Every structure is written in structure tokens, then in C-alpha cells.
Amino acid sequence: MVDFTIPEEIQMICRGLRSFLEKEVRPLEEQYKRYLEDERARLQDDGSLVPEFKSVLNHVRRRSADLGYYGMHMPPEVGGGGVSRVGMFYALREVFHHGLGLNVVVLSGPEGPSPMLLQFNEPQREKYLRPLVRGEMTTCFALTEPEAGSDIKNLKTRAEKKGDHYILNGMKTFITNAADADFAQVFAVTDPKTYKEHGYMGVTAFLVERDTPGYQVGKINRSLIDDGSQAELIFENCKIPKENVIGQEGMGFYVAMSWLGIGRLNIAAWSVGLAQYLLERCVEYANLRTAFGKPIGKYQHIRGMLAESAAELYAAEQMLLHASWKMDQGESVVDESSMAKWYATNMLYRMADRAVQIHGGMGVMKELPIERIFRFARILRIVEGTDEIQKETIAKSLEL
Ligand SMILES: Cc1cc2nc3c(=O)[nH]c(=O)nc-3n(C[C@H](O)[C@H](O)[C@H](O)COP(=O)(O)OP(=O)(O)OC[C@H]3O[C@@H](n4cnc5c(N)ncnc54)[C@H](O)[C@@H]3O)c2cc1C
Asked: Residues 230, 178: contact at Cβ < 8 Å?
């Protein structure tokens, strides 16, 4: 029998998150409205976030960690809550159902703990992983380079082994949280011959501390949503002790894949939460706004857009729920996570476009959160593998 009942412990987590968002996060959003409504107000001249806004984000992150939410997807032995993927789907949906405010840091993203870091040995877990779960440190995942985005077989960053350490040289770009991370997870070619022959082997993941000589944050990348989050990282002759290898030498991509699969499901879950938020805003507006003597929700064109949105949202939810359940059974979800990421982000993008249309002129004005979600939705179709890369993965599973 297939049972779609949401388990009581997951319902409890969602109720707790809702209460935290309403009682603690929303008042802060009111207090710091100036930063949330105007992206220019939150950025300094170099594109980084103003310190006050950054400290509010840190406060929300730490408070969420104190309540046990921030790193709850991690296992209890590193301070997490051991919440299942199905549980995380509902939790992420709940958090993003709140919109795009300070809630974005309530559950950890690429700046926080990921299962990839379970590869750390015990002293590293104590020094880096547990503080990450507690929200006291942040990290970043540094894979992309100017000439290697989708094409991860073209990395130029190199780490050469010299006795008991490696010498790291290279550059990364578009790295989320690079400017603030206490340490970076950096992917570098350690065996150029194997890398050239196999493409996936010969790359090693390293833990690189921010204060390592030769570690430099480059320019901040300005994006469509100007959240001051992405930046370049430059490594010049950084000396990395061999203990800082994450997982096995030469197997960095396999380590990375453990992160990307979950990252794709997370982004799909954000999309479902945001889509739910948009649908509710649209229905409210369609009932409220009148044109030619009646609410616009009575017009067939508007009703059609809303009906399509509701059906697509339902489809994305079910896909994601099934992929999450499958992952909880220990099964591979490489294809399903690509399908869910591609479908859910495109569903959100279509819905955000309709939301702008339904709100008319107000849809593109900064007074409402709609236009920002529209811009954010566009970005989600690029990160963690573009639409085309997801479709390539799906096509491969069809044995084309
Ligand atoms: C907001 C943001 C945050 C990011 N955060 C991080 C991060 O924290 N860490 C990190 O390492 N990276 C990060 N990235 C980088 C991101 O992963 C890459 O931008 C993404 O993988 C695409 O790579 P690219 O930009 O080089 O585009 P390209 O790979 O150059 O792609 C250009 C176009 O070609 C298409 N294309 C490429 N190859 C194929 C193919 N085989 N078949 C069909 N079409 C193809 C792409 O789909 C795309 O349409 C971030 C990017 C953004 C925008």
C-alpha cells in the first residue's frame, strides 16, 4: 500500500519552522526591510554585503542552528538531526513557502554542512564540521572555473604533491559564499595524466583554510539578484597539508557527486516552496484586483494561468516526494534528481512569469516580492547543473 501521510515528526518540524519564521524571522524582516526591498542598499561598492545585513543573516543562521533546524539533515554524530530526505523536502518547502527574505539561511545551503564533509576524519569533524552544523562557521564549494562550468573535465586548478603536503595553484569563479567562508572545499587536478584519460578521476577535493598564505578572494561576481554571494577565489602556491584531502586522493569528483545529487533535490524543493508562495499571492490578487467591473480572477485567461500553475506545482511536488523517498531507501536517484531539478525550476520559472503577468504593472515593481522571485527563478535554471546538463543526464538514462 502506498501511504502519503506525512509522518507526525515531520509535521512537528514543519510546525516548529513555521512558528520560528513567523515569530522570530518575520519581525527581523520588518526591521531590516530597507535591505530586503532594495538590493542596492545591501551592497557595498565592491559588490559585497554591508556588514549590518551580513550580521542579521548570521544571527538568523545561528538561531536556527540553536533550535536544531539549520543542520538537521546531518547525522546526529556530528550534531545534526538525522532528518530523512522526505523530511527535508517538507522542511525546505515550508521555509521557502515564506518567500525570499531572511528565511533563505534558515536551512543550510552551499555555505553549510553537506554529507560530502562526512569524509572528514575525527579531528577535522571537531574543528570544522560540528561548528558548521552549529552555524558558527561557513564554507564554500569551489568547483567552477572560468573555463570549466558544465565541462568539469576542463579544470585548470592544479595541486602538486610535495612530500607531506600539496602546492595548490588556480582560480575558481561564481563561488557562493566565497567572500565569507572560513574554509573552502576546493577541487584540483592532482594526476593530470589520469584526468586527461578518464575525465572523472585524478581530481582531489581539499579543505583549504581561509588564512592559508596565497589564498585570496578575487572580485565579487554581480548577478541578476545582486545578493553579494558569489565571488572568485585565487590560489597562489597555497601549501595544503595532506591531512586536508577530503576523501580519497584522485576521487574528488565522486566526493562532489555526493553533494550535487542532494543539492539538486534541495533546489527543486526551494522551487516548490516558492511556487506555492507565488500561487497564493496570485490567487489573493486575482480575487482582489478588479478590471472592467469584476475581479480579474473571473477572466478565463487569468483562471487558465492559475489552473496550469496549480497542476504543475502538484506534479513537481509528487516527483520530488518520490525521488526523496527513493533516496531514503538507499537507492540511486541520479536520474530522478535531474528530472526533479529540471522540472521544478522550470515550473517555478513559468509560474513566476505568470505571477508577474497577473500582477500587471505591480508585478515588475520593487514594492512587491514577485519580480525578485522571477529573477531568482531564472538563476535556478543555471546553478547545480544547467537545464541542458540535467537533460543530458536524463537522456543518458534512456540509453540514447
Ligand atoms: C548564482 C550562481 C551560484 C553558483 N555557485 C557555485 C558554487 O557555489 N560553486 C561552484 O563550483 N559553482 C557555482 N556556480 C557555477 C555554476 O555551477 C555554473 O555556472 C554552471 O554549472 C554552468 O557553467 P557555466 O556558467 O560555465 O556555463 P557553460 O558550461 O559555459 O554553459 C553555457 C551554455 O552551454 C550549455 N552547455 C554546456 N555543455 C553542454 C552540453 N554538453 N550539452 C548541451 N548544452 C551544454 C549550458 O547548458 C549553457 O546553456 C554558480 C553559478 C551561479 C550563477
From this structure: yes
